[in-house]
Automatic annotation (TrEMBL):
A single GO cellular-component term on record: plasma membrane
Protein name per the record: DUF485 domain-containing protein
Natural source organism: Metapseudomonas lalkuanensis
Superkingdom of the source species: Bacteria
Keywords: Membrane, Transmembrane, Transmembrane helix
Transmembrane intervals: 25-45, 57-78
Amino acid sequence: MEPNALAGIRTNPLFVALVRRRRRFVACLTAATLLPYFAFIYVAGFMPEVLAARFSAASIVTIGWPISVVLIVGAWLLTGLYIRRANGEFDELTAKILAGEQ
């Protein structure tokens, strides 16, 4: 692609909107993934007895197990959410930009 074409794309209002929306969305997803993860690691490091607590005296399952499963499944769901939006909204905007719409 020619340098002039790239400059034209960078100044396109649709491209600016695409970049802004995608950055905001990725920042939200990153925060939604990393904050619970680091909170889990923090609790595991400084208060391991919280995660080692059992649901009942007869239970062999600790509280840490379901929380860790929720973290993993949540990361999968957030990844799927990104893919859905990238394949929909972001791809539509990209197609409009490549078609030359302003």
